[in-house]
Write a structure and sequence with these properties.
The radius of gyration is 19 Å and the shape is globular. Helices cover 74% and strands 0% of the residues.
């Protein structure tokens, strides 16, 4: 019951304080990118530079994607853009409560929206990176279809998963600061378990289910289905059901941990 009450309060707080959330999001984005020389440019160039490195190493050096019907660079960038967004947001959201500690003692301010501010801030940048990705797709002869609109569905799905994980990680990091070092290591590990520069078809079908246990498989595969292969999200009903089940668990656990630890936030920052 307490979790349901917190969810209702959270939704009410979003509706009542949307302008404050917007201003915090704008402030967060400007502080990270706009106010620094070349900050915004580097924020876009960083994932593109990583894409070039992987394309050179795996696309040219190791002849990755030689059996694909599409240019390897398009396969690579659609997966990389999705995972880089997830990795960046979760890493930054982990330390968000400590970063916004000056708001903890503000009356009528719901601290549960702080991780959301980080998500929205990075999503703005993500939308710009996606536009750059679209340009690369067009250059390689991949043109828009109605399936491209599924991007909004998969971006929302990733946001729901991130919200639950961010609530959990941001609350726990105040009491266990080492989690801010641990999460990048875990994300780096899962990066290589996600089919970004390799294809799941490289492995026997009997073990495909192992890779699909990674919830980011659904998102990365969904970006490719939307922008490249023209497949609907409804064509993978069981995979979708699994992803939303994992996201629901992440939300419940994230809310429960956040509620449990929230009364002690001001004592540890």
């Amino acid at each position: 019951m307490k979790i349901i009450k917190e969810a209702i309060n959270f939704a009410r707080h979003l509706a009542d304080n949307w302008y404050l959330i917007f201003e915090l999001t704008r402030r967060d984005f400007r502080q990270k990118y706009v106010t620094n020389i070349f900050g915004f440019a580097w924020a876009i160039l960083d994932p593109l530079a990583l894409m070039v490195i992987f394309w050179v190493v795996f696309g040219l050096g190791l002849r990755g994607g030689r059996d694909m019907e599409i240019p390897f660079v398009t396969y690579l960038i659609t997966g990389l853009v999705a995972y880089q967004c997830f990795q960046t947001i979760l890493t930054m959201a982990t330390g968000s409560i400590r970063e916004y500690s000056f708001l903890l003692n503000k009356i009528n301010f719901g601290t549960s929206v702080i991780p959301l501010v980080k998500i929205l801030s990075e999503y703005f940048l993500h939308s710009i990176v996606v536009l750059v990705m679209i340009v690369i797709l067009l250059i390689n002869g991949i043109f828009p279809t109605l399936y491209w609109l599924q991007f909004f569905y998969y971006a929302f799905a990733m946001g729901v998963l991130l919200l639950g994980l961010s609530w959990f990680a941001s609350a726990v990091s105040l009491f266990f600061p080492d989690i801010q070092k641990l999460i990048p290591i875990v994300l780096r590990f899962f990066f290589f378990l996600t089919p970004i520069f390799w294809s799941i078809d490289m492995f026997p079908p009997r073990i495909h289910w192992v890779f699909k246990l990674n919830p980011m498989y659904y998102i990365v595969n969904g970006y490719r289905d939307s922008f490249i292969y023209g497949r609907g999200f409804w064509e993978e009903p069981y995979l979708g059901l699994y992803f939303w089940s994992v996201s629901a668990v992440a939300l419940v656990v994230g809310v429960a941990v956040f509620i449990k630890l929230k009364p002690h936030f001001a004592d540890v920052v």
